[in-house]
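During the no-cost extension, the postdoctoral fellow (Dr. R.K.) reprocessed legacy sequence entries with the updated structure-token encoder. One reprocessed record is reproduced below for audit purposes.
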Amino acid sequence: MEFLFQVGGMTCVACSNTVERLMKTSFGDKGMVEVNIVLLTHKMTARFKASAFTSKEVTPDDICEEVEMVGFDCSLLSIQELSADSLKKKSRHVARERLDSEASERSLNSVKLGGRDDTDGNEDASP
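Re-encoded structure tokens follow.
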């Protein structure tokens, strides 16, 4: 089962990392197999074993409650059952989307820091 959530209030990579850690801590032992967050679109995809929901161990409301407890807005956008083949395709797509999001975030941070690259603290050599 794949759940797509809108997560509001994330403004930086630290925010998305907080939500990702929360999901892994709260639901990793309850059937969650993967979580992906795309900061630029404020979307979170959580994949669970179907048994987690048939046994009522986890509900989308449980997920939103946990996310909201750490200070972010959360709403369920969609639920999708996935076949093994579509899981492989989705994983590749989400990985590319996440890399694009992280590159964009680094670029935005560089602009915010006056051309300084926050990874090494060096000033940009351009005037």
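The domain at 2-82 is CATH 3.30.70.100 (Alpha-Beta Plaits). The beta strands are 2-8, 32-38, 43-48, 73-80. The remaining legacy entries will be reprocessed before the final report is submitted.
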